[in-house]
Amino acid sequence: MFLKLASYVIPATSQGAHKTMIQPHDEHVVSALLFKHSSLGLIICDDKGEIIEVNPHACSLFGYEPRELVGQKIEALIPHQFRKKHVEHRARYYEHPVARPMGIGMDLLALKKNGTEFPVEISLASYEIDERRWTVGFVSDITERKKIKDELKQLNITLEHKVGERTRELSQALMELHHINTNLHTEMAERKRIAEELNVALEKERELGELKSRFVSLASHEFRTPLGGIASSASLITKYQKEKEQEQRDKHVRTIQRLVQHLTSILNDFLSMDKLEQGNVEAKPSSLQLASFVESCINDTERGMSKKNRIVYVHEGDMVTVMVDQEMLRNIVTNLISNALKYSSDETIVSVKTRVDGEKIELIVEDQGIGIPEVDQKRLFERFHRGKNVLSVPGTGIGLNIVKNYLDLMGGSIRFESEEGKGTTFVVILPKGERT
Fold first, then answer.
1. DSSP codes of every residue in 275-325
2. Long-range residue pairs from 374-382, CB within 8 A, at least 24 positions apart, any chain
């Protein structure tokens, strides 16, 4: 029987039943093509559902030895729970045989020799030889395809229909390909987002490296200069041994004291910045008389002055008691006044004004100094940033950053107005707090 069937070529078609008698060809070529080299399982049955021939790939799919299936009913390859129904389907098919192509969306199960069930896709073709009807089934194992499809169900939450619904036609398959493409775009967008976040993180790391480098450079310069002055004054003091040279000794002692005070201020700023970065600082309000407190801050600043400037202080309104963090407020006041003095010429006036307006405190520090270039104003409160016109003036570039951080902790704010060459005005606003 095999040789007889193998001597014919079965034309592939998906339009109607194969009723036309087919032409004979070379038996060995056709046999090799259909039964040995096909990538699909090929099963030939008669009109009673008996298996007449199977190709090697079909034997491999179902786990049988060659010719072990010949003579068995086709239901031997169908799970037990479907066999009865399949007999009815087979009978109806032989009454009205039509070609059934691959990919019609039917989820079918087949049964291996070892009892394992696996999903398959089957194409049927019916033809006649010697007035007998034969059916050829082309079987494809779609286990991997089903596995991929099930995984896609979990990933694609935007599908309007469950991915698990049966594929019905080629258009359904095309729709799923469209959704896969959508997922790829989404994944690409997600990767782009992650890449952008990594770039931001790398940029922050680069900025941190620059900040550390600037910190080391500034710290080295800011400590070296006053330490050199201290060493020089200490050396010169030893040269003035006579009683009449007391004035020279006092001058160098004052220089040492001023430079030590300057170094202490720098160290305090560095310590404050570190504590702020670690999140170990919180505002601890206590009561104080505002005008008296600001006057004491001004007196402390004047003792360290090396220039011949004047500080003019005015308090408007009543001498009221307020609730603020004293250490933070002292740092704010002294930083703003010291900067005003530092960047002003000799014999100019630095104006300081305070007032209590309703529930807020206002501190205004105005100088007639060199001003802040417009290009630097947006970065004024950044750590280690210094204006292009003050690089020759000693400074760390962290004072105003600390002021801004302290004001944030105290619920206050700061603004300024400045014009290069004409001076700067800083305005600080703080909540007054409860009176004691």
1. HHHHT------EEEEHHHHHHHHHHHHHHT--S--EEEEEEES---EEEE-
2. 374/420, 377/416, 377/418, 380/416, 381/414
Q: Is the pTM of this model over 0.85?
A: no
Residue type, 152: L
Q: Residue 256: which of 278, 273, 232 has the closest Cα?
A: 232
DSSP code, position 326: H
Q: Is 267 left (phi over 0), alpha (psi -120 to 50) or beta?
A: alpha
Residue 270 φ then ψ, to 5°: -60, -40
In this structure, what DSSP letter does residue 33 have?
Answer: I
Domains recognised in the chain with CATH numbers: 2-141 (3.30.450.20), 184-281 (1.10.287.130), 282-431 (3.30.565.10)
- pLDDT of 333: 92
| Side-chain-facing half-sphere of 309: CA atoms under 13 Å | 28
Residue 271 CA to residue 253 CA, distance in Å, equals 27
> What confidence category does residue 158 fall into, taking pLDDT thresholds of 50, 70 and 90?
low
- What are residue 109's DSSP bridge partners? 119
Nearest residue to 432 via CA among 416, 410, 417: 410
Please calculate the CA angle 3-5-8 and round it to the nearest 5 degrees: 110
Helical spans, DSSP H, in 156-245: 170-237
- Residue 122, helix vs strand vs coil: strand
| Strand positions, DSSP E, 55-162 | 108-111, 117-129, 132-141
Distance CA 157, CA 323 (A): 57
What one-character DSSP code corresponds to residue 428? E
pLDDT at 363 over 70: yes
Asked if residue 245 lies in contact with residue 253, where contact means CB atoms within 8 angstroms, the answer is no
**What would the two tokens of residue 81 be?**
């729970």
DSSP symbol at 21:
P
- Among 431, 424, 419, 410, smallest CA distance to 332 is for 410
Phi/psi at 314 (nearest 5 deg)?
A: -135, 135
